[in-house]
Design a protein that fits this description.
Blueprint (H helix, E strand, L loop, with lengths): L17 E8 L2 E7 L5 E5 L2 E4 L4 E6 L6 E7 L15 E10 L4 E9 L7 E7 L7 E6 L9 E5 L6 E7 L4 E7 L6 E8 L6 E8 L2 E7 L10 E5 L7 E4 L2 E2 L10 E8 L2 E8 L9 E8 L6 E3 L13
Parallel strand pairs: 19-23
Antiparallel strand pairs: 1-2, 2-5, 3-4, 5-6, 7-8, 8-9, 9-10, 11-12, 12-13, 13-14, 15-16, 16-17, 17-18, 20-21, 21-22, 22-23
The chain binds (2R,3S,4R,5S)-2-(hydroxymethyl)piperidine-3,4,5-triol (DGJ).
Length: 310
């Protein structure tokens, strides 16, 4: 796959899984993301948008050939007040598997078209491909919630919804309850007054790394990574991990998720095309942790997993 443009699925159709994530459930990889296969509407107060089409699910055995499984979460065109009505915002869907309940739990950024309601939406399914059934949308711990992600701490096994809050000034970690469908009330702030979006986490060699973008709408900006030894103690912003052409604009992309496969972490990027959002592209880039720093080098292609001992 060529990193940068929109990728095609195994039927030759553009993959509609923007702001997404890749996770392994059972013997397959699943890619969830925003289906933006509609006209880009211009001139709204907050710029360009696509009416909610739903959340796509694709499956793969090799991370290169992707099969469309359909809409894992469907819109609700009949109810103008519903958070899944086409007029709303559904962004950055992420899915966790809950061992306790045996359910798949989706969290997504649920918002009004002007981005003022700033909620987290929750939906559950018995199977990874869905259908996911919408439960509710809320502000986690009464805090505004925009760019969203999820993280299962491999040390404590606690799961979190990570979200930009305080009008994107702070990154919040809101702990999920045992079912992953509600919040315990435990919540801590990171990167206060750093105005970050697209926060994505991984843990390597005893340190937590948080990759995030700045806040410039659909336009790219420099990624920064931050580090902490304990998830709940303050992270320190370190540097831009990107190396290669256009490293100052994250190769013209924005972080959406970090997944691990065979001991290697991979950073997923969206390459937004604000004029025609459905044509937005993707990259998957391996993360290197040698020499005491995090490095994400530009690679023109992603051709599946690389060896951990390369
Ligand atoms: C940047 C965010 O990261 C995207 O998910 C989206 O909300 C755009 N802003 C909208 O401008």
């Amino acid at each position: 796959m060529k990193n940068g443009p929109c990728w095609l699925d195994d039927a030759g159709k553009p993959i509609q899984a923007h702001g997404g994530m890749i996770a392994r459930f059972g013997d397959k990889w699943y890619w969830y993301g925003e289906n933006k296969d509609g006209p880009t509407l211009r001139g709204s107060a907050v710029g360009h948008r696509v009416d909610v089409v739903g959340v796509s699910c694709y499956s793969s055995s090799d991370l290169v050939n992707w099969h469309y499984e359909g809409l894992a979460l469907k819109p609700e065109p009949g109810d103008a007040a519903h958070p899944l009505h086409p007029s709303k915002i559904v962004e950055r869907p992420k899915v966790l598997y809950c061992e306790k309940t045996g359910k798949y739990v989706m969290w997504f950024h649920s918002d009004s078209p002007d981005y003022w309601s700033a909620c987290a939406g929750c939906a559950v399914s018995d199977t990874p491909q869905g259908p996911f059934h919408f439960l509710y949308a809320t502000q986690p711990n009464r805090r505004d919630c925009r760019d969203i992600n999820v993280y299962q701490d491999p040390v404590t096994q606690k799961a979190y919804v990570i979200h930009s809050g305080d009008w994107n000034h702070t990154l919040y970690f809101s702990e999920l309850d045992d079912d992953y469908t509600g919040f315990t009330g435990n919540c801590f702030a990171q990167l206060a007054e750093q105005t970050r979006e697209g926060g994505s986490l991984c843990r390597h060699d005893g340190l937590y790394y948080c990759v995030s973008s700045g806040c410039t709408g659909w336009n790219p900006n420099p990624t920064l990574y931050a580090v902490t030894r304990h998830l709940t103690t303050p992270m320190v912003l370190v540097d831009n991990p990107c190396e290669g052409p256009r490293y100052r604009t994250t190769f013209d992309g924005q972080s959406t998720y970090i997944f691990e496969a065979d001991g290697v972490f991979y950073l997923m990027l969206d390459h937004w095309k604000p004029e025609n959002l459905k044509e937005s592209g993707y990259s998957i880039l391996p993360i290197d942790f040698s020499d005491g720093r995090m490095t994400v080098r530009w690679q023109p292609e992603f051709n599946g997993l690389i060896r951990a001992d390369r």
